[in-house]
Amino acid sequence: MPTLGPNSYGKAETRVVRVVRDGAVHHLKDLNVSVALSGEMADVHLRGSNANVLPTDTAKNTVYAFAKEHGIASAEEFGIRLARHFVTSQQPIHRARIRIEEYAWERIETAGRAKHSFARRGQEVRTAQVSYDGRCWEVVSGLTGLTVLNTTDSEFWGYVKDRYTTLQEARDRILATDVHARWRYGWSDDARPAPDWERGHAEARGHLLSAFAETYSLSLQQTLYQMGARVIERRPEIDEVRLSLPNQHHFLVDLEPFGLTNDNEVYFAADRPYGLIEATVLRDGAEPRIPTD
Amino acid sequence: MPTLGPNSYGKAETRVVRVVRDGAVHHLKDLNVSVALSGEMADVHLRGSNANVLPTDTAKNTVYAFAKEHGIASAEEFGIRLARHFVTSQQPIHRARIRIEEYAWERIETAGRAKHSFARRGQEVRTAQVSYDGRCWEVVSGLTGLTVLNTTDSEFWGYVKDRYTTLQEARDRILATDVHARWRYGWSDDARPAPDWERGHAEARGHLLSAFAETYSLSLQQTLYQMGARVIERRPEIDEVRLSLPNQHHFLVDLEPFGLTNDNEVYFAADRPYGLIEATVLRDGAEPRIPTD
Amino acid sequence: MPTLGPNSYGKAETRVVRVVRDGAVHHLKDLNVSVALSGEMADVHLRGSNANVLPTDTAKNTVYAFAKEHGIASAEEFGIRLARHFVTSQQPIHRARIRIEEYAWERIETAGRAKHSFARRGQEVRTAQVSYDGRCWEVVSGLTGLTVLNTTDSEFWGYVKDRYTTLQEARDRILATDVHARWRYGWSDDARPAPDWERGHAEARGHLLSAFAETYSLSLQQTLYQMGARVIERRPEIDEVRLSLPNQHHFLVDLEPFGLTNDNEVYFAADRPYGLIEATVLRDGAEPRIPTD
Amino acid sequence: MPTLGPNSYGKAETRVVRVVRDGAVHHLKDLNVSVALSGEMADVHLRGSNANVLPTDTAKNTVYAFAKEHGIASAEEFGIRLARHFVTSQQPIHRARIRIEEYAWERIETAGRAKHSFARRGQEVRTAQVSYDGRCWEVVSGLTGLTVLNTTDSEFWGYVKDRYTTLQEARDRILATDVHARWRYGWSDDARPAPDWERGHAEARGHLLSAFAETYSLSLQQTLYQMGARVIERRPEIDEVRLSLPNQHHFLVDLEPFGLTNDNEVYFAADRPYGLIEATVLRDGAEPRIPTD
Question: Which of A135, A158, A183 is the last residue before a domain boundary?
C-alpha cells in the first residue's frame, strides 16, 4: 500500500479586520491568516476517520475569537498565539504553521477632528510565518510587492558569451525589481524575550530600500547580496535573509529609424520573460532554513 | 449583406517609461498607453484592404517617438498630442481616443546625494482618456484602486423589506469601497486655454478623499453623491463626475458562540458578492457623457 | 446644487450553484449573477433616505430563492425572471439589468455508474445580459475567454506607411486572438415567443469558431467582420454582434544569429502591447445598441 | 561578512510556440519555460564580476534555438535537453532546473480540409520540472487548474469539537477542489531508458480524475490519499505524488426564511477562506523529495 508522506491541513485566507477604538481615534489591523496543522493524521487519510481532525472551520473561528480576546499587537505576535493554541490544546496536532499577510492602511487627513478614516497604502504586503512544534519557534517575516527602480548607476558587462549570446553590454541601464524578501529571526525559545516585531519589520524594510538605492550595481546579484547583507549587519536579531528579485527589464527603445537619439530617456517596460535572481544571505555560522523553492 | 457598425482599432497597452535627467536629480513618468482610431475603415473590414490602415505597430512607435520629442508633461497633455497627430496626419482617420494609465513612483530617501531611486507608490492608478474628432476635445480623467474605509459614522436602515429581505438594520458599520472615479473637464476647444491637468487631478483626488472621510453616511449612495458634488462644487473646470463604488462588506463576526461580545471590533472582510453603487454627478445644465456601462 | 445623473445599484457577483438530481444522474448550473436596479433614487443620493431602496442583500437572497423555486433553464431565462420580478414588484424600480456569467462543467467519465462528478470545462465564460424597463426586453448574450489561433492563412501588407512605420509586411503569420463576443437578440416583446437561448448560444459560438478557422485573413478586421456576418446570416433571431479581438502577436524569432533558419516554426508569444480590433456587425436596418465602450 | 547561501539565476517565463507543418496538417506546442542555474556564483554576488555569468538573455535565446533545432517532443524531453546543455557546456554551472508550463490546444473542426486552426483547451496547465546536477536527473511532472466537483457521495462528521467549534456535521455535501498535482518519476539515470512522458502524463491525469470521482468521501484527506495512491499503484514509473487541494466550499443556502426547503439543490460557492489539504503519497520505500512548501 502506498505510504503517506508529509501532510498538513487547515483554513487558508481567513480575512480579519480588527478595530481598536481609542475614543474618537480608531486603529486598524487588516490580516489574511492561513493556518496549517500537522500531526497524527494517518487515520483520516487512510480510512476517512475524522477523530483527530479539528475542523478547518474551527481554525477560522479561532482566528476571529483571538482577535477579540487578545487583540493583534503584530502579525508575528498573533501568529505565535495561534500556533501555541493549536499545538498545546490539541493532542494529535504536533506542529502548526501560521502564515499572515498584512495590508497597510494610512489615515486620511481631514480638516475635521475625525480619526476613523483610512486609505490602503498600496500593493506592498507585509508577511509573517510562524512555525511551532511544541518546543521551538521559527519566525520568518517579510514583504512582497515592493517595486523599486534605479534610473542609473547600473551596468552589465563582462559576462560569458556562447553561441547563443546576442545581448549587448550595457554601461548605463535602468534596474528595476519587485522585491520579495523573507527574513528569519534568530529567536526560537520561549525562555528568551521575543524581538520587537513591529520595529524589526520597519528597520529591515528600510535597510532593503536604502541598500537598493545606494548600491552602484554591476549585476542584480550584487545588488541582491548588498540588500541582504545590509539587513544581517544592522539587525542582530535576524540570522537569514532570502530575496527573490525579478529583473524587470526596461529596454531602451531604438529611435534611430525616426531620426531620433535615445539618450537613456525612453524605455519599454517589458512583462515577460524576465530575469529571476534568488539568493539567501546568512549570518556567519547560521544555517539556511528558508525554503528555496 | 450585414452592415458594419461602430468600429475602432489601435495598439493597446504600450508601456513607456520616460526619464528626465536634471543633473543628478532624475524624474520619471510611467505610462500604459492605448490608442484607438476610427474613420474610413469599411474596406479593411469588408474586403481586407489595408490601404487606409496605419499599422497598430506604428501607433506604438509613435508613442515612443513622442515621449522623446515632446516629453510627458502630463498624461492628458501627452494624450492630446497623440490624438491630434493621428487625426490630423492621417486623412482616413476621423477620430482618436487615447487611454492612459499612469503609475506613481515616489523617491526613495537615502543618506547619500543620489536622486535616481524610486519606489512604486501603490496600487492606485491615475487614468486619462482623450477623445478628438478634429474639432472638439473631450478629456476624462480619473483614478482606480483607491481603497478607503471608515470604521464608524455609517448606518443603514429604513429600507424596503419584501418577502426575501433578511438583512438586519445597522446603526454603526464599517463602510469600505474601492473608488473608481472619472471626471470630465469642460474644456473642449483649442481656442481656450487647457486646464492645469496635474493640479486638477491632485485637487479632485483630494476632494474625493475628504468627502468620503467627512460624510456621516446613511447609505453608500449618499456618500457617493457627496463625493461627486464636492468635486463639482470646488473645481469649476470639471462638469461631470462618475463614480463606481463597490460596497466592500465587512461583516461583524458573531462571537456569541464563544462567550464573547463583539463591540464592533472584529470583522470578516468579504470578497463576493458585493454591493455596487454607480452614479453620475453633474454641474447644473451639463449633459452626462461619461458612459454608464 | 450638483445634479444627480444616471445611476444604478445592486448586488454584484452572487455565486449560485444549482444542482438537479434526476435519480443518480445529477445536473449542474454554475452562475455568477449581478443585479443592477434604477428608478426613483434621488432621495437616497441627496438625503440618505432608504425608503425606496430594496437592500442589495435582498437581491442576493432573491437569486438563491429563485434558483430553488424556478430552477435555471438557461442564464437568459433566469435573468428574465429576475428582471421582471424587481421591476414589477417594486414600484420605485423602473429598470433592471441582470448580468450573468456561466461556467461550464463536463461530466467525468468513470467506469462506475456514478453520474455526479464534473470537471470545469475551461477558461471560456458564457455571458448573458438582460435589461427590462417594464415594457421592452433587451437580451445580449456572449462569451469571453475563447482563445483561438491559426498557424497560417493570415497575411498583413499594403498598409499605410508614415514616418513612424517600421513594421515589415507579412505574407504568412500566426493569427491569434481571445474572442470577446456579444450578440443581441431581436426579441423584445413578451407577446412574442422567446428564442431557444441554449441553442442560440451553441449555434452562435459554432459560427464564430468556424468563420475564424475558414477565413483566409488579410487583416484581423476582415476576420472579425466575417465572424460577425456569419452569425447574422445564419441566426435570424440575432440582430447585432459586437466583437472585441485583441491581436495576440506571435513574433517570428530571428534565429539567424545562431546560424538557423526560421521557416515559420518558432514564435515568441508576446503579452503587451497588443493590437485591439473592435467592431459591431448588424443585420441590415438594425440599430447598434451594444455599448462600444 | 555575511555568507552567501543557496542561490540561482536565470530567465523566467520565456513564451515559445513551436509549429510543425505536416503538409496542410499543422501541430502546435505552446510552452512557458523558466531556466534556473546554480554553481560558482560567489564572485557575482560578492564583487559584481560577471565572468561566470551566462546572461539570462542567452538562456532565452537557447530556448528558441533548441525549439528549432530539436523540436519539442514533450515538455519533459525539452527540459532535459536544456538542462543538459547548460550543465555540460558551462563549466561554472553545476546545476540546472527547468520549469515548463504547457498550454493545451485542440483543433477547431471545420467543414473544409483546413487543419491549422486551434482553440485553447482551458485553464488547466500541464507542468514539468527537470533538475540535473551533471549526474542525476529528477523529473517532476504535474498539472494545475483542474477544477473538479462531486455533487454527492461526500460526508464530514465525527470530528473534534472544541470551544471554538460551531460547524454542523454533514451527511451529504458538495466536494469541490482545484487540483494541483505533482508526481516524481523514478527515472534518474541516463543509462536507463526514460519513461514515455506524454503517456505518463495522460495516464496520471486520468487516474487522478477517476479516483476523485469514484471515492465515496468522508473527508477531503481521504479523497486526496485515494487520488495519490491510485497513481502510485497504476504507474510503476512514478514514485511520489504530491497533491495540494483547496476545499472550495459550497455552502447550502438557508432558504427557510423564504418558506422554502433546500434539498441539497442551491449552494453558495465561496471564495475565501477555504480549507487547504496537502499531502504526499509515496511508493513504499521511496523518499519524499517534492518540496512541501
Answer: A135
Of A110, A135, A160, at which residue does a domain stop? A135
Q: Does B143 touch chain A (CB under 8 A)?
A: no
Tell whether D244 and D201 lie within a shared domain. yes
A129 in contact with D at a CB cutoff of 8 Å?
no
CATH number, domain of D113, equals 3.10.270.10
Residues in B touching A267 (Cβ below 8 Å): 16-19
Output the pLDDT for position C114: 66
3-state secondary structure D6-48: EEEEEEECEEEEEEEEECCEEEEEEEEEEEEEEECCHHHHHHC
Q: CB-CB: which of A52, A218, A273 is closest to D50?
A: A218
Catalytic-labelled residue, pool A29, A201, A207, A249? A249
Q: Is the pLDDT at D153 greater than 90, yes or no?
A: yes
Residues of chain A in contact with residue C272, where contact means CB-CB under 8 angstroms, are 271
Same-domain pairing of D176 and D291: yes
Q: What is the tens place of the pLDDT at every residue in C204-255?
A: 999 999 999 999 999 999 999 999 999 999 999 999 999 999 999 999 999 9
Instruction: Quote the domain boundaries for residue C3.
Output: 1-135
**Annotation says A60 is catalytic:** no
**B117 CA: distance to closest CA in chain A (Å):** 5
Please give the pLDDT value at position C105.
97
Element (H, E) at C41: none
Residues A267 and A147 in one domain: yes
A130 and A190 fall within a common domain: no
Q: What is the pLDDT of residue B110?
A: 81
pLDDT at B114 over 70: no
Which listed residue (C27, C56, C94, C115) is catalytic? C56
SS3 readout for chain B: CCEEEEEEEEEECEEEEEEEEECCEEEEEEEEEEEEEEECCHHHHHHCCCCCCCCHHHHHHHHHHHHHHHCCCCHHHHHHHHHHHHHHHCCCEEEEEEEEEEEEEEECCCCCCCECEEEEEEEEEEEEEEEECCCCEEEEEEEEEEEEEECCCECECCCCCCCCCCCCCECCCCEEEEEEEEEEECCCCCCCCCCCHHHHHHHHHHHHHHHHHHCCECCHHHHHHHHHHHHHHHCCCEEEEEEEEEECCEEECCCHHHCCCCCCCEEEECCCCEEEEEEEEECCCCCCCCCCC
CA distance B163 to chain D (A): 7
pLDDT digits (tens, 9 = 90+) for B264-282: 999 999 999 999 999 999 9
C208/C281 same-domain check: yes
Residue C148 contacts B where some CB pair is shorter than 8 Å: no
C213 touches chain D (CB under 8 A): yes
Which entry of B11, B85, B180, B207 is annotated as an active-site residue? B11
> What pLDDT shows up at residue B175?
98
Chunked in runs of 10, what are the mean pLDDT values of chain C (293 residues)? 97 98 95 98 98 98 98 98 98 98 94 85 95 98 98 98 98 98 98 98 98 97 98 98 98 98 98 98 98 92
Same domain for A202 and A113: no
- pLDDT of amino acid A114: 66
pLDDT band at D133 (very low <50, low <70, confident <90, very high): very high
Predicted pLDDT of residue A109:
86
B25 touches chain A (CB under 8 A): no
C68 as an active site residue: the answer is no
Q: Is A256 on the interface with C (CB under 8 A)?
A: no
D125 and D162 part of one domain: no
Q: Looking at the predicted structure, is the pLDDT value of residue D112 above 80?
A: no
Give pLDDT < 50 ranges for chain A: none
User: Is C249 part of the annotated catalytic residue set?
Assistant: yes
Q: Are residues A163 and A273 in the same domain?
A: yes
> Which one is catalytic: D26, D27, D56, D58?
D56
Report the domain count for chain B: 2
